[in-house]
Amino acid sequence: MTLTTKPRHFLTLQDLNRDELQRIIERAIEMKAQHRAGTAGKPLEGKVLAMIFEKSSTRTRASFEAGMAQLGGSALFLSSNDTQLGRGEPVEDSARVISRMTDIVMIRTFEHAKVERFAEYSQVPVINALTDDYHPCQLLADIQTYTEHRGSLQGKTVAWVGDGNNMCHSYINAADLLDFQLNIACPEGYEPNSELLEKHAARIQLTRDPKQAVAGADLVVTDTWASMGQEDEKKAREQAFAGYMVDHDLMSLAANDALFMHCLPAYRDMEVSSELIEDGNISVVWDEAENRLHAQKALMEFLLQ
Ligand code: CP
Ligand code: NVA
């Protein structure tokens, strides 16, 4: 069977408009409350999610698998180590086969183009669960977390301190969709993608100075200095990022009620101090991790509607 209508994918935040993003966040907050009250329904009964992992994961795997179970569906864990994808079967073929057997697919891989190619050949919605370039699912959880603690991000200032990586790129997209100012502090040579920067130049301030980026910010975010696939660069990156650790001193320059976020896994006393990440008055990293569960449930429900 071949479907004639194109499925809706979620490869970057730009696949949603502002209203849709808003609706997903509201639904995620509602699903979380219903889950806690024991009143959640099972809107995805009988649906199957394929989870393709070519990189490691704790949060993404646990949240998608638990989320699908909570929605009444089930999930298949497909690692590249033990599928034919890892032995060189073309992504176009894998997409056509897997999408004939399942209702929705999530992929975590290296090249963003691979997720795009999979989506092009898939009959069912495809979700980007992290590529070298973007991590949009994490942004859904981050936006939900900020909303729950402080309300809308519109008109606020977010500071990104560290590598101009996949998370930073997704923050750039979020700044555009949600209308906030994004201050990025990164060392020379570790800037985000230049085309993306240019496209959203009006909302972004790029600096080498973490203090300048954080001054007055409502939300301060960082991430590991060496992402998955950059393990060989770890030593060089530790040197390049010296002075970029987010700690209480740096946070004292932010707004009085500023929050700290990190997608995790975190490397203590590297990109974030041990004291700050454990300071529950400022750091909301555990809520942020938990919200992956609810935000992705709302996303899957939206894509399958
Ligand atoms: N934040 C995040 O995506 O974590 P995992 O790599 O554990 O999935
Ligand atoms: N930037 C990190 C995020 C991990 C969730 C990485 O890509 O490894």
Structure description:
This protein is 42% helix and 14% strand. By secondary structure, the protein is α/β, with parallel strands linked by helices. The strands form two sheets. Strands 7-6-5-8-9 form a five-stranded parallel β-sheet. The two termini are 20 Å apart. Norvaline binds next to helix 6.
Keywords:
2 domains, Rossmann fold, 4-stranded parallel sheet, alpha/beta, 5-stranded parallel sheet, 12 helices
Topology:
Layout lengths: L17 H20 L10 E6 L5 H12 L3 E6 L11 H11 L2 E5 L3 H10 L4 E3 L7 H15 L6 E5 L4 H13 L2 E5 L8 H6 L4 E4 L2 H5 L4 E4 L11 H7 L7 H4 L7 E4 L11 H4 L7 H20 L1
Parallel strand pairs: 1-2, 1-3, 3-4, 5-6, 5-8, 6-7, 8-9
Helix pairs in contact: 1-5, 1-12, 2-12, 3-4, 5-12
End-to-end span in angstroms?
20 Å
Q: Tell me about the biggest sheet?
A: 5 strands, parallel
Specify Rg, calculated over alpha carbons: 19 Å
CATH class membership of the largest domain: Alpha Beta
What compounds sit in this structure? phosphoric acid mono(formamide)ester, norvaline
Strand-residue proportion: 5-15%
